[in-house]
Amino acid sequence: MTTLSSGFARARRWLRDHPLAFDAALALGALVAMICGSFADPGTGHGPTFGTRTPEPFSVLLMVLAALALVLRRRRPRAVLAATGALSAAEYVLMDPPAPVIMSTVVALYTVASRTDRPTTWRVGLLSMGALTAAAMVFGSTPWYSQENLGVFAWTGMAGAAGDAVRSRRAFVDAIRERAERAERTREEEARRRVAEERLRIARDLHDVVAHHIALVNVQAGVAAHVMDKRPDQAKEALAHVRDASRSALNELRVTVGLLRQQGDPEAPTEPAPGLAVLGELVATFRNAGLPVEVACADRGVRLPAAVDLAAYRVIQEALTNVRKHAGAGARAEVSVVRVGATAEVTVLDNGRGSAGRRPGAGPGGAADGGPGSGGPDSGGHGLVGMRERVTALGGALTAGPRYGGGFRVHAILPVEARTGGPERPGTAGGTGLRR
Question: What tens digit of pLDDT does each residue of 180-200 get?
């Protein structure tokens, strides 16, 4: 049974790849059927009888011409229908009793109906049925209501209906296939978009971790080198802070990079992402680095959504890092986190007197961390850009700029219900203007 089915499948594939050969075989079969039918006499009894009549040479010629026309039914379907219809009408007009040349017209009408639209099928089908039925009724010797004449009407009508049904089914299958292909392309595009968003998120996390801790390590190492000879105890304390900051950086890097591990990897970290719950530890690192920081947090017992909590923590971390790097000596910082209705507002202020060219985003170009117009040694940073992207991805807004009277201000408004499923729009970060 398997061998038989595989043989049919191979034959079907071969015929699909060679349509002209299939049409030639179909034309030969139609010719054999027409010739066999021409030997049958309808009679007046209980059915047709064979051997009482033979086809005329002119009828055989018409049948051969009609069969040859069917070979081109795929290339010129309407022309083939017109040719076979004319040959069938000529058979009804000139011969009595007529040979079944109309079999070729039935095949041609089916082809036209299966390869054109429904209005064309209706027009061509009604014209063919009316013309051939009228020719059979008017020029035939049998009564107009004979079964042979009604058979002409029925066979041509069924050919048009069958062709239209096949065309509809083929269009339905093509639509399903196209929909499946489009859904597959959509899934691939969605997967690529999610990969790009995840890369942006991981890049922001890595920047926040490295920039914060390396800045602290740099400051404490400079302090240690400055007081190493005169005050070794203070140098030892600074080196201890360097050790703690580096250890914390390694731990956070391990957590961030661990997100890239395969699911179920025993080495993957299980620590939660940092948030406002550990804000005190973050502030302590800056205080140890010599930056006085005051914190005001309302509703300490209320927990924010995980994405909002992490974004608020990262904004504070990056803003304080920029204060430590750019505000200059004697600067102080203030941090406030306030729940206002359906939003959480994070504000970081400082009274630094650092040069405008070295403050992030304060240059003529409004760039972040020494972008165009800063001219400082920190050119090329992405601190404010990363903060804006992180806040914008959650549906919030971030403004940053110099304060009136000196200092710098970073203000982020985060919705409590984060839109974590929507696409991130990194391009909006560069379009958010700085308020002066």
Answer: 888 888 888 887 888 777 777
| DSSP per-residue letters across 91-133 | HHHH-SSPPSTHHHHHHHHHHHHHHS-HHHHHHHHHHHHHHHH
Q: Locate tokens 């560069």: which residue?
A: 430
87 and 70 in contact (C-beta within 8 Å)?
A: no
CA distance 244 to 289: 12
- Collapsing DSSP states into helix, strand and coil, what is residue 163? helix
CB atoms within 10 A of CB 14: 11
**pLDDT tens-digit profile of 279-325?**
888 888 888 878 889 988 876 666 788 888 888 888 998 888 888 88
Q: What is the DSSP string of 295-329?
A: EEES-TTPPPPHHHHHHHHHHHHHHHHHHHHHS-T
Name the one residue in this structure whose structure tokens are 């009274």.
351
Can you tell me the distance from the alpha carbon of 120 to that of 132, in angstroms, rounded to the nearest whole number? 18
What's the Cα-to-Cα distance from 327 to each of 109, 190, 282, rounded to whole Å?
87, 43, 18
| 397: three-class secondary structure by DSSP | strand
3-class SS shares of the chain: helix, strand, coil, % to 5? 60, 10, 30
